[in-house]
Amino acid sequence: MCGAAVSEPDTTDTTILTGSAYRDDRHLAARQSLYRWQQPTYDLPGLVLEHLPIRTGTVLDVGCGNGTYVTRLRSQRPGLTVVGLDISPGILATVSAPVVAADAARLPVGDHSATAVLAMHTLYHVDNIDAAVAEAVRVLEPGGIFIASTNAREDKAELDDLWARAAGEVLGVDRGPRRISLSTRFALNDAPQRLRSHFAAVETVELPGTITVHEPEPVIAHLASYRSWAENIGVPFDATLTRARDLLQHMIDRDGRFQITCRGGILLCHTTRHDDKARYDR
Ligand SMILES: C[S@@+](CC[C@H](N)C(=O)[O-])C[C@H]1O[C@@H](n2cnc3c(N)ncnc32)[C@H](O)[C@@H]1O
Q1: Which residue range or ranges hold the Methyltransferase type domain (predicted)?
Q2: Which residue in 6, 34, 74, 174 is deepest, having the highest Cβ count within 10 Å?
Q3: Domain segments of the chain: what residues?
Q4: What is the predicted pLDDT for the residue at 3?
């Protein structure tokens, strides 16, 4: 058959990011909620706190989204000034002040003014990733830490398979176009190497897990959250979702559950080496 032209969705397009994908936190919350069914569970803000041994100073959360990390850091470390920054003014409306609408590659803060910078599941949306990391380095104090998170390329591979099967059935071919993937541009597989050109030391904390669901809905809500990038993906989005739901229900009826393998991780990036970080441990 002659299919529609397929092109990679531009997951860095600012108009889509601010006007649709993150205009509010609806889609983000749908993606976040799938992790409720993951084992082991990871308290990501708790892990950030664990690796952030500071009580005073300024923390910039770049791409703060709906403020999961901002809220937790403020409540558990009241001595810190935690500023949420995001390219989308809409999603910032869900976070209490201080927040600033800004692009990760052009932070409106002075040199060496932050003790820590976070970019959790954000860099893969940034057009020039190295410029954004260089910007974090510019604003960090000597001895400061940059913490980023992302997923590996093989993260949630079962969803790739499910989507390709559903899309294939909609199009009448063996396998349809692959699922929209956000983290591929800054995948955990090669992110450490990339960050090493900016920092004195980079450590990876791997967060492997398995999501188990007994009904299709949490998975379908997750897949539906990619709708903002669904134009030009070469397959009708709603028809593929409907088919994916049917396939999932069939697998759950047959196996009693559907499992998804997760491979996320956190990257701890130090501006100075460990043996020279006395100033930072305050
Ligand atoms: C996947 S969400 C992550 C939100 C939050 N950090 C979390 O982990 O829950 C990505 C966030 O990055 C923001 N973002 C995307 N591109 C950005 C950019 N160039 N500069 C600043 N924020 C950006 C989006 O608006 C969105 O809120």
Answers
A1: 60-147
A2: 34
A3: 14-276
A4: 43
